[in-house]
Amino acid sequence: MNKPAVLDHLLTVLNAELASLTRAAQGAFAAATDPDSKAENKYDTRTLEASYVARGQAQRVAELQEAVRAFGALSGKALESGAAITLGALVSLAAPEGRSHYFLGPLAGGTEMVHEGNEVVVITPASSLGQRLIGRREGDAIALRPGTLAKVVAVI
Known about the structure:
6-stranded mixed β-sheet, elongated
């Protein structure tokens, strides 16, 4: 796999998600502050609920903006042969179920994308799998779950 291309694709996915969520957050803010949406009686909580939604979406927008900045700062340069897995590594694992591909990123854990027919999942160093991968090298085995081992077949 081509690491710079994977990183570019990941940034495209994050930016698209950010644009979509920004539009949704703006809509939620407009609904929460619209004078026509004032409460009709003391039991009407539409405006309050809309403000909660707007706040949550604004927080998610801020998180995605930070993720875009963090991934933009990563180097797309491939790691040297035999290098240990670290932040920014593209890792391929071979398990009994087949190969899986992970990008060890600073944020946006759980983001999934398909690049050149391969599914790539972003994991963070704080995740369980991320903790098991940090410092490992090509050829090392790790436990994916109890009773299932995977072999690190590529570190890019």
